[in-house]
Amino acid sequence: MDLFGAGRTLVMGIVNVTPDSFSDGGRWLAPEAALAHAHRLLDDGADILDIGGESTRPGAQRVDAATECERVIGIVQHLVAEGHTVSVDTVNAVTAHAAVAAGAAMINDVSGSLADPDMGRVIAETGVPYVAQHWRGTPETMAGLATYDDVVADVIAELGRRLDSLLAVGVRPAQVILDPGLGFAKDHHHNWEILAHLDRFLDLGHPLLIGASRKRFLAGVVPPALAAQPLERDHATAAVTALVAGRGVWGVRVHDVRSSRDAVRVAQEWAAATGGASGRHDD
Fold first, then answer.
1. Cα diameter, the chain
2. Is 261 a known active-site residue?
3. What is the pLDDT of residue 25?
4. What is the C-alpha separation between 241 and 215, in angstroms, rounded?
5. What would the pLDDT profile of 76-89 be if each residue is shown by its tens digit?
6. 171/164 Cα distance (integer angstroms)
7. 110 backbone dihedrals φ, ψ, rounded to 5°
8. Looking at residues 64-76, what average pLDDT do you find?
9. For burial by CB atoms within 10 Å, which of 58, 84, 94, 119 has the most?
């Protein structure tokens, strides 16, 4: 598919091929289970499948690129052979290169190339779209780094430095999608401040990906008896999707595709009824 010509917010479905992701770790670790889950997400309307072989939840342990490739590359090859659009969620340049060679259309790097200095070179050489997320520390240390003078200004400045670094090694501006990194080195209120000021991120002139799905900051809007269960945050996630789609973000990365795809359609209809710039784009 044309990753930049859909005329609406794209829905990226998450396929965690890991034993330790925060909401579904281990469920899709076996290749057969991962592929079955990917097909369910496609049936629910996913535009892109984001395949990840390493958890980035707070406190997660790193895995080596060989293990990560063993988990994801066969799945990428299978899905691409079926004609689907696949992204690979990785901070490793070796994995990114192997994934593109296997047919992945995009690389989603939560570190914005900070975790691996070779990532920018790989993205420049392959020419694929690249999600550069805001990142501080590592999954093991990021919880202690959520200190900002002004979270919106600071995150924008740090994304700007990531962008400068990528362009310096030959990545084209048109390849870069930015992600403010909700939940990564962010306290509860930081995430809401970022969402409240999306226009400032959109003004950077790059497509914007939002990954709010099931994250801890949504627990505060879920009934208290359910708040500790990530799967109970899907309705709240869909509400965020409707709001950010209405603001014109490029994409949302979610676990539950059906509810967010419906939310995107709500945003489209709302824009059409109110004369919004996005109008209606039927599938």
1. 51
2. no
3. 54
4. 13
5. 999 999 999 999 99
6. 10
7. -65, -15
8. 94
9. 119
